[in-house]
Amino acid sequence: MKDYFSIGELADFQQISRQTLIYYDKIGLFRPAYVDPQTGYRYYSASQIDYLDTILIMKKIGFSLKEIQEHMREFHAKKSLDAFYHQLSVIDKKIQELNMIRSRVAHRCEQMEQAEAYAGHGDEITVEQTGEQYLLYRDVAKPCSMREVSIATKECFAQASREKLPIFFQCGVVVPLQHVREERFAAASQAFVVTEPSERAENIKKLPAGLCASICHVGDYASIGASYQKLLEGCRRQSLEIVSDAYEFCINDYLTSGNEKEYITRIVFYVRPSGQ
User: Residues 106-117: pLDDT tens digits?
Assistant: First the structure.
Protein backbone atom coordinates (compact mmCIF):
# COMPACT_ATOMS: atom_id res chain seq x y z
CA MET A 1 0.00 0.00 0.00
CA LYS A 2 1.28 3.43 -0.98
CA ASP A 3 2.38 5.68 1.92
CA TYR A 4 2.15 2.79 4.38
CA PHE A 5 4.74 0.46 5.85
CA SER A 6 4.11 -3.23 6.19
CA ILE A 7 4.91 -4.79 9.56
CA GLY A 8 8.07 -6.34 8.08
CA GLU A 9 9.24 -3.02 6.63
CA LEU A 10 8.64 -1.17 9.91
CA ALA A 11 10.37 -3.91 11.90
CA ASP A 12 13.44 -3.70 9.64
CA PHE A 13 13.39 0.10 9.71
CA GLN A 14 13.29 0.23 13.51
CA GLN A 15 15.54 -2.81 14.05
CA ILE A 16 12.95 -4.65 16.12
CA SER A 17 11.14 -7.93 15.59
CA ARG A 18 7.75 -8.43 14.00
CA GLN A 19 6.74 -10.22 17.20
CA THR A 20 7.43 -7.04 19.18
CA LEU A 21 5.08 -5.02 16.99
CA ILE A 22 2.43 -7.74 17.21
CA TYR A 23 2.73 -7.72 21.00
CA TYR A 24 2.50 -3.91 21.16
CA ASP A 25 -0.69 -4.17 19.10
CA LYS A 26 -2.06 -6.89 21.38
CA ILE A 27 -1.62 -4.81 24.56
CA GLY A 28 -2.89 -1.64 22.91
CA LEU A 29 0.40 0.24 23.14
CA PHE A 30 1.04 0.69 19.41
CA ARG A 31 -1.61 -0.34 16.90
CA PRO A 32 -1.35 -0.32 13.11
CA ALA A 33 -3.05 2.48 11.20
CA TYR A 34 -4.75 -0.08 8.97
CA VAL A 35 -5.39 -3.83 9.03
CA ASP A 36 -6.36 -5.51 5.77
CA PRO A 37 -9.72 -7.20 6.56
CA GLN A 38 -9.05 -10.01 4.09
CA THR A 39 -5.43 -10.87 4.86
CA GLY A 40 -5.08 -9.52 8.40
CA TYR A 41 -1.84 -7.79 7.37
CA ARG A 42 -0.89 -4.80 9.50
CA TYR A 43 0.12 -1.49 7.92
CA TYR A 44 1.58 1.60 9.57
CA SER A 45 1.59 5.21 8.48
CA ALA A 46 4.67 7.44 8.28
CA SER A 47 3.18 9.66 10.98
CA GLN A 48 3.34 6.75 13.43
CA ILE A 49 7.12 6.43 13.25
CA ASP A 50 7.76 9.25 15.74
CA TYR A 51 5.27 7.70 18.14
CA LEU A 52 7.05 4.34 17.90
CA ASP A 53 10.41 6.09 18.35
CA THR A 54 9.13 7.57 21.61
CA ILE A 55 8.10 4.14 22.86
CA LEU A 56 11.44 2.58 21.96
CA ILE A 57 13.48 5.42 23.46
CA MET A 58 11.49 5.33 26.71
CA LYS A 59 11.96 1.56 26.84
CA LYS A 60 15.72 1.98 26.35
CA ILE A 61 15.79 4.58 29.13
CA GLY A 62 14.30 1.96 31.42
CA PHE A 63 10.57 2.61 31.55
CA SER A 64 8.39 -0.46 31.68
CA LEU A 65 5.80 -1.02 28.96
CA LYS A 66 3.07 -0.40 31.52
CA GLU A 67 4.65 2.92 32.50
CA ILE A 68 5.03 3.90 28.84
CA GLN A 69 1.41 3.03 28.09
CA GLU A 70 0.17 5.04 31.06
CA HIS A 71 2.42 8.00 30.17
CA MET A 72 1.41 8.15 26.52
CA ARG A 73 -2.31 8.16 27.11
CA GLU A 74 -1.93 11.91 27.52
CA PHE A 75 1.56 13.31 27.61
CA HIS A 76 3.01 16.79 27.37
CA ALA A 77 6.30 18.53 28.13
CA LYS A 78 5.72 19.02 31.88
CA LYS A 79 4.57 15.42 32.38
CA SER A 80 7.53 14.15 30.37
CA LEU A 81 9.98 16.28 32.37
CA ASP A 82 8.64 14.88 35.64
CA ALA A 83 8.82 11.33 34.28
CA PHE A 84 12.38 11.76 33.06
CA TYR A 85 13.54 13.24 36.36
CA HIS A 86 12.00 10.28 38.15
CA GLN A 87 13.75 7.92 35.78
CA LEU A 88 17.06 9.68 36.48
CA SER A 89 16.71 8.74 40.13
CA VAL A 90 15.93 5.14 39.12
CA ILE A 91 19.01 5.05 36.88
CA ASP A 92 21.21 6.55 39.61
CA LYS A 93 20.04 3.86 42.03
CA LYS A 94 20.78 1.13 39.50
CA ILE A 95 24.24 2.60 38.88
CA GLN A 96 24.87 2.58 42.63
CA GLU A 97 23.75 -1.03 42.88
CA LEU A 98 25.87 -2.07 39.89
CA ASN A 99 28.91 -0.27 41.31
CA MET A 100 28.42 -2.15 44.57
CA ILE A 101 28.07 -5.48 42.75
CA ARG A 102 31.16 -4.66 40.69
CA SER A 103 33.20 -3.96 43.81
CA ARG A 104 32.04 -7.28 45.29
CA VAL A 105 33.04 -9.20 42.16
CA ALA A 106 36.40 -7.40 42.06
CA HIS A 107 36.92 -8.31 45.72
CA ARG A 108 36.17 -11.96 44.96
CA CYS A 109 38.66 -11.93 42.07
CA GLU A 110 41.33 -10.43 44.33
CA GLN A 111 40.64 -13.03 47.03
CA MET A 112 40.88 -15.87 44.50
CA GLU A 113 44.17 -14.57 43.09
CA GLN A 114 45.64 -14.13 46.57
CA ALA A 115 44.49 -17.61 47.60
CA GLU A 116 46.13 -19.16 44.54
CA ALA A 117 49.37 -17.40 45.51
CA TYR A 118 49.09 -18.52 49.15
CA ALA A 119 48.22 -22.07 48.13
CA GLY A 120 51.35 -22.18 46.01
CA HIS A 121 53.45 -21.85 49.16
CA GLY A 122 52.66 -25.44 50.12
CA ASP A 123 52.90 -26.05 53.84
CA GLU A 124 53.95 -22.49 54.68
CA ILE A 125 51.73 -20.36 56.85
CA THR A 126 51.24 -16.64 56.36
CA VAL A 127 51.56 -14.24 59.30
CA GLU A 128 50.44 -10.69 58.61
CA GLN A 129 48.52 -7.71 59.90
CA THR A 130 44.96 -7.73 58.61
CA GLY A 131 42.35 -5.01 58.45
CA GLU A 132 38.99 -5.09 60.16
CA GLN A 133 36.16 -7.11 58.65
CA TYR A 134 32.46 -7.51 59.35
CA LEU A 135 30.54 -10.76 59.34
CA LEU A 136 26.79 -11.35 59.14
CA TYR A 137 26.49 -14.57 61.08
CA ARG A 138 24.03 -17.24 62.14
CA ASP A 139 24.53 -19.90 64.80
CA VAL A 140 24.84 -23.43 63.48
CA ALA A 141 22.34 -25.82 65.05
CA LYS A 142 23.55 -29.02 66.62
CA PRO A 143 24.95 -31.50 65.73
CA CYS A 144 26.89 -28.89 63.67
CA SER A 145 27.14 -31.15 60.61
CA MET A 146 27.56 -29.87 57.04
CA ARG A 147 23.78 -29.93 56.69
CA GLU A 148 23.32 -27.48 59.56
CA VAL A 149 26.21 -25.33 58.29
CA SER A 150 24.59 -25.15 54.86
CA ILE A 151 21.24 -24.13 56.37
CA ALA A 152 22.83 -21.40 58.50
CA THR A 153 24.74 -20.08 55.48
CA LYS A 154 21.59 -19.92 53.37
CA GLU A 155 19.84 -18.09 56.23
CA CYS A 156 22.58 -15.47 56.12
CA PHE A 157 22.13 -14.93 52.39
CA ALA A 158 18.33 -14.85 52.76
CA GLN A 159 18.52 -12.25 55.54
CA ALA A 160 20.93 -10.12 53.52
CA SER A 161 18.56 -10.19 50.55
CA ARG A 162 15.47 -9.56 52.68
CA GLU A 163 16.97 -6.67 54.64
CA LYS A 164 19.04 -5.33 51.71
CA LEU A 165 22.32 -5.68 53.58
CA PRO A 166 25.48 -5.07 51.53
CA ILE A 167 27.35 -8.36 51.42
CA PHE A 168 30.38 -9.67 49.59
CA PHE A 169 30.13 -12.90 47.61
CA GLN A 170 32.05 -14.79 50.26
CA CYS A 171 30.92 -17.08 53.03
CA GLY A 172 32.62 -19.05 55.76
CA VAL A 173 32.34 -20.57 59.21
CA VAL A 174 33.69 -20.10 62.72
CA VAL A 175 35.20 -23.15 64.42
CA PRO A 176 35.67 -22.67 68.19
CA LEU A 177 39.29 -22.96 69.34
CA GLN A 178 38.24 -25.67 71.79
CA HIS A 179 36.88 -27.73 68.90
CA VAL A 180 40.17 -27.28 67.05
CA ARG A 181 42.12 -28.47 70.07
CA GLU A 182 39.84 -31.49 70.26
CA GLU A 183 40.52 -32.06 66.52
CA ARG A 184 36.84 -31.53 65.72
CA PHE A 185 37.84 -29.39 62.77
CA ALA A 186 34.49 -29.58 60.96
CA ALA A 187 32.38 -28.71 64.05
CA ALA A 188 31.56 -25.09 63.20
CA SER A 189 29.53 -23.03 65.65
CA GLN A 190 28.60 -20.21 63.27
CA ALA A 191 28.25 -19.63 59.55
CA PHE A 192 28.74 -16.19 58.04
CA VAL A 193 28.88 -14.03 54.95
CA VAL A 194 31.28 -11.11 54.72
CA THR A 195 29.46 -7.80 54.93
CA GLU A 196 29.91 -4.15 55.86
CA PRO A 197 29.02 -2.33 59.09
CA SER A 198 25.29 -1.73 59.38
CA GLU A 199 22.85 -0.84 62.13
CA ARG A 200 20.04 -2.70 60.37
CA ALA A 201 21.07 -6.08 61.76
CA GLU A 202 22.08 -7.10 65.26
CA ASN A 203 23.85 -10.27 64.13
CA ILE A 204 26.85 -8.52 62.60
CA LYS A 205 30.19 -9.00 64.32
CA LYS A 206 33.34 -6.99 63.80
CA LEU A 207 36.66 -8.73 63.34
CA PRO A 208 39.24 -6.18 64.45
CA ALA A 209 42.46 -5.37 62.68
CA GLY A 210 45.28 -7.43 64.10
CA LEU A 211 48.00 -9.99 63.65
CA CYS A 212 46.74 -13.17 62.00
CA ALA A 213 48.21 -16.50 61.00
CA SER A 214 46.61 -18.32 58.11
CA ILE A 215 46.95 -21.18 55.70
CA CYS A 216 45.07 -22.06 52.53
CA HIS A 217 43.58 -25.53 52.40
CA VAL A 218 43.29 -26.86 48.86
CA GLY A 219 40.83 -29.66 48.24
CA ASP A 220 37.59 -31.04 49.62
CA TYR A 221 36.40 -30.00 53.07
CA ALA A 222 36.64 -33.51 54.49
CA SER A 223 40.45 -33.29 54.39
CA ILE A 224 40.75 -29.86 56.04
CA GLY A 225 42.10 -31.37 59.26
CA ALA A 226 45.55 -31.80 57.70
CA SER A 227 45.75 -28.07 56.97
CA TYR A 228 44.70 -27.25 60.53
CA GLN A 229 47.54 -29.42 61.81
CA LYS A 230 50.02 -27.61 59.58
CA LEU A 231 48.75 -24.23 60.77
CA LEU A 232 48.93 -25.23 64.44
CA GLU A 233 52.44 -26.60 63.98
CA GLY A 234 53.49 -23.46 62.12
CA CYS A 235 52.27 -21.28 64.97
CA ARG A 236 54.23 -23.42 67.44
CA ARG A 237 57.42 -23.17 65.39
CA GLN A 238 57.11 -19.39 65.22
CA SER A 239 56.21 -19.10 68.92
CA LEU A 240 52.80 -17.62 68.18
CA GLU A 241 49.98 -17.94 70.67
CA ILE A 242 46.50 -18.46 69.17
CA VAL A 243 44.04 -16.04 70.77
CA SER A 244 40.84 -16.59 68.77
CA ASP A 245 38.54 -19.14 67.26
CA ALA A 246 39.28 -20.26 63.71
CA TYR A 247 37.71 -18.30 60.88
CA GLU A 248 37.37 -20.21 57.64
CA PHE A 249 36.88 -18.08 54.52
CA CYS A 250 35.73 -19.88 51.37
CA ILE A 251 37.78 -18.62 48.43
CA ASN A 252 37.16 -21.22 45.74
CA ASP A 253 33.92 -23.07 46.42
CA TYR A 254 30.75 -24.21 44.67
CA LEU A 255 30.37 -20.70 43.23
CA THR A 256 33.64 -20.88 41.31
CA SER A 257 34.27 -24.56 40.61
CA GLY A 258 32.42 -27.82 40.18
CA ASN A 259 35.55 -29.74 41.15
CA GLU A 260 36.14 -30.05 44.90
CA LYS A 261 39.86 -30.60 44.25
CA GLU A 262 40.01 -26.91 43.26
CA TYR A 263 38.30 -25.69 46.44
CA ILE A 264 40.39 -23.28 48.53
CA THR A 265 39.52 -22.47 52.14
CA ARG A 266 41.59 -19.92 54.02
CA ILE A 267 41.89 -20.77 57.74
CA VAL A 268 42.67 -17.77 59.94
CA PHE A 269 43.62 -17.41 63.62
CA TYR A 270 44.35 -14.19 65.49
CA VAL A 271 47.73 -14.63 67.14
CA ARG A 272 50.31 -12.84 69.30
CA PRO A 273 53.93 -13.62 70.08
CA SER A 274 54.14 -16.06 73.00
CA GLY A 275 54.78 -14.40 76.34
CA GLN A 276 53.11 -11.10 75.46
Answer: 988 887 787 677
